[in-house]
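Predict the assembly for these two chains.
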Amino acid sequence: QKEVEQNSGPLSVPEGAIASLNCTYSDRGSQSFFWYRQYSGKSPELIMSIYSNGDKEDGRFTAQLNKASQYVSLLIRDSQPSDSATYLCAVNSPISGNTPLVFGKGTRLSVIA
Amino acid sequence: DAGVIQSPRHEVTEMGQEVTLRCKPISGHDYLFWYRQTMMRGLELLIYFNNNVPIDDSGMPEDRFSAKMPNASFSTLKIQPSEPRDSAVYFCASSLDAYEQYFGPGTRLTVT
C-alpha cells in the first residue's frame, strides 16, 4: 500500500470554479500535513500546512483534514489559470522510519480560461 | 533571505564522469535534504542531515552516490561514476523542524 496517494489527474476546472484536490495516507500516527505547489520546470513551493482536524483557510486556499478517515484535501476557490500546476501532498509518517516527510506523486491541475 | 541556493542549475555529462551538485541552505535551518524527482518515481528522499550530521541515507540508490555537509551552510551530493539512469532533477531543501521544507531551484542532470 502506498503511504500517500493522490489522483494523478489531470484535473481540469473552468476559471472561477472551485478546485478540489484530495490525498489519502496510510499511517494513522501522522500528525503534520502539507500541500506544495509545483509549476512545470520549477521546484515545489510550500503553500499550506495543517495539523488539526477541520479546516484551515489562507486566502483562496482551504486545507481540510480528517484524521479518522485519513484524508487531507486542498480547496482552491475562484480558480485562476495561474493556479495550473502540480499539487503535492506531504505527510509526516512515523512508520516510515527516519524519513520526516513522505510525498505523494501529485495531482496535475489545469484551470481553463 | 535568498532561499536555498543550488548549483549548477543544469548539468550535462557523459556516462562514467563524476558529478558534484552543491547546496546552500537557508541560514539558521538545521535540516538539509537531498531529493531526486523523476516522472516515474516522483519525489524521492535520498539523504538528510540534522546539524550537519547524516541522519538517514537509506534512499541513496547505491555506493555511487555520496553526500557531505562539512558545515552549516554547504552540502554536496556526488555521483561517481554517473550513469544514464541517474538523469533526473535533484532538489535540495532545508527546514527548521524537518517538516516545513523549503526547496531550492533544483539541478537538472542529464547523463548521456
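The mean pLDDT of chain B is 95. The interface with chain A takes residues 31, 33, 42-43, 45, 48, 55-56, 58-59, 91, 95, 98-106 of chain B (CB under 8 Å).
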